[in-house]
Design brief:
By secondary structure, this protein is of the alpha+beta class. It has one domain. The strands form two sheets. Strands 1, 2, 3, 6, 7, 8, 9, 10, 11, 12 and 13 form an eleven-stranded antiparallel beta sheet that branches. The chain is globular, with a radius of gyration of 23 Å.
Length: 255
C-alpha cells in the first residue's frame, strides 16, 4: 500500500512538473466547402459503339445490347459520384479536392453472396499556386496535367455518400498528419507523396477526361497503366468521363 502511495505521489509530481512551461493550444481549423461538381457522364467504347451512363463508365451486355445491371448490381467499371473542393482559412495557400466513388463488394465472396454498396473518398492536398498554374486547359489538344500533392488514407462509408459535414470533420482529423511542419517549411518546396494526373481533350463545348493518380514505388497508375500521350490516347479511346466545359472550368478555377 505504501509503495502504491509513493507511485501515485511520484506520478502526480511528474505530471505537475511537465505540465508547466510553454502552453500550446490546439489548432482549430476552419474548413470551408467551396463547391461540389457532379454533372459527370461516363462513356465506354463497346465494339466500336459509344455507350454512356450518368456518373459511371458503363459495363455493357452485348447479348441484350443494354447496360449491364445484374453484374455488380448496376455499377460500372468506374463510378465517380462527385468531386468537391475545400479550403482552410488558417492555411490559405492550399486547396483540398475530394473524389467520391460508389463501389460494392460481397459479404461472402467465396459464394458470391451478400452484395452491398459502399462509398469511398480519396482526398488530395494541392499547393494553391501549383494548382492554379498547372490546371490550364488547352483547347483542341490531348493534354496531360501532372501535379505533386499529398493524399489522405481512403475514407470508406458503408451507409451513404459522405456528407459535407462528415468530409470537413475527416479533413480536420487528418490535416495535421500531413501539414504539421507547415509553418517551418515551405509547402511547395516539399515533394508530395502522390502524383496526380488530369488527362483530357476539349471537344466543342465539352471536356473529355480521366483523373488518375500514382503512388510512389507503384508501377501502375490508377486506373490506367503508365503515362505519356500515346498511352493516354489509347486509354481515352476506350473510356472516359465527360462534362460541360463551362461548368467544369467554373468548378476548377472559381475557388
Amino acid at each position: 500500500m505504501k509503495n502504491l502511495f509513493k507511485i501515485l505521489i511520484l506520478t502526480l509530481l511528474f505530471n505537475f512538473l511537465f505540465s508547466i512551461g510553454e502552453r500550446v493550444d490546439e489548432i482549430k481549423y476552419n474548413i470551408k466547402h467551396i463547391s461540389t461538381f457532379s454533372n459527370i457522364t461516363g462513356w465506354s467504347n463497346i465494339q466500336g459503339v459509344w455507350k454512356s451512363s450518368k456518373n459511371k463508365i458503363p459495363i455493357w451486355d452485348l447479348i441484350d445490347n443494354e447496360e449491364e445491371v445484374f453484374f455488380r448490381d448496376g455499377l460500372g467499371k468506374d463510378n465517380i459520384v462527385s468531386i468537391s473542393i475545400f479550403t482552410i482559412d488558417e492555411i490559405p495557400d492550399i486547396i483540398i479536392m475530394t473524389f467520391v466513388n460508389k463501389n460494392g463488394s460481397y459479404e461472402f465472396p467465396s459464394i458470391s453472396s451478400g452484395w452491398f454498396h459502399y462509398y469511398n473518398m480519396n482526398t488530395f492536398i494541392f499547393n494553391r499556386n501549383d494548382f492554379k498554374t498547372g490546371m490550364k486547359l488547352i483547347d483542341g489538344k490531348l493534354t496531360s496535367i501532372e501535379l505533386d500533392c499529398y493524399s489522405f488514407e481512403r475514407f470508406d462509408s458503408y451507409f451513404s455518400e459522405p456528407t459535407i459535414d462528415e468530409t470537413e470533420n475527416y479533413i480536420k482529423t487528418n490535416i495535421d498528419k500531413y501539414l504539421n511542419n507547415y509553418k517551418k517549411d515551405s509547402y511547395s518546396s516539399r515533394p508530395g507523396n502522390v502524383t496526380f494526373y488530369l488527362d483530357y481533350y476539349i471537344y466543342k463545348n465539352s471536356i473529355q477526361y480521366m483523373f488518375t493518380y500514382k503512388v510512389p514505388k507503384m508501377k501502375k497508375q490508377y486506373p490506367m497503366e503508365g503515362k505519356g500521350i500515346k498511352k493516354i490516347k489509347k486509354f481515352l479511346d476506350k473510356s472516359y468521363y465527360e462534362s460541360p466545359l463551362n461548368e467544369f472550368e467554373k468548378f476548377i478555377f472559381n475557388n
